[in-house]
Amino acid sequence: MHSARDRIEYEPWLEDLETVAERLELSTEARSCAVDLFLTDVPASDRSKRAVLAASLYAGSLVAGDGRTQGAVAEAADVSRLSIQSRWKELLEAAGLEPPRW
């Protein structure tokens, strides 16, 4: 659970996350998980926030069983696939989840 203060501070980013989730037609569960993952480890640099947002959406979709490809999420979020690939496992681990080993 994250504080209301976090949600207010990062509201513009959470709105972007919701917009990208809508493009991907993600389930409510996947969106909720993505928000939690994003708020767990928001980077200080605005430049890195978009990549973490995309990685959170990808990881959230996996956790919710509503998986999307890294490429589809990268395209919808306007980031490189490598940005997602290099971050999503760390996000899951930071949230106390074990990433899949495939």
Distance between the termini: 29 Å
**CATH superfamily grouping:** Cyclin-like
Q: Which parts are unreliable, with pLDDT below 50 for 5 consecutive residues or more? A: none
Helix content: 55-70%
Total of domains = 1
Tell me, what's the shape? globular
Number of helices: 7
**Helix-strand string:** HHHHHHH
Rg value? 12 Å
Compute the number of strand runs: 0
CATH class: Mainly Alpha
* Derived structural class: mainly alpha
Give the CATH topology: Cyclin A, domain 1
Largest sheet: none
Beta percentage is under 5%
State the CATH architecture.
Orthogonal Bundle
Q: Averaged pLDDT, please?
A: 92
Protein name: Transcription factor TFIIB cyclin-related protein
InterPro entries: Cyclin-like_sf, TFIIB_cyclin
Pfam family, one: TFIIB
GO molecular function: TBP-class protein binding
Overview features:
TBP-class protein binding, single chain, mainly alpha, Transcription factor TFIIB cyclin-related protein, globular, TFIIB_cyclin, Cyclin A, domain 1, 7 helices, Cyclin-like_sf, 102 residues
Give a written overview of the molecule.
This protein is mainly α and 102 residues long. The protein has one domain (2-93): Cyclin-like (Cyclin A, domain 1). 70% of the residues lie in helices and 0% in strands. The chain has helices at residues 4-9, 11-24, 28-40, 46-63, 70-77, 81-85, 88-94. The termini are far apart. The model has no long low-confidence stretch (mean pLDDT 92).
Write the layout of secondary structure elements.
Blueprint: H1 4-9, H2 11-24, H3 28-40, H4 46-63, H5 70-77, H6 81-85, H7 88-94
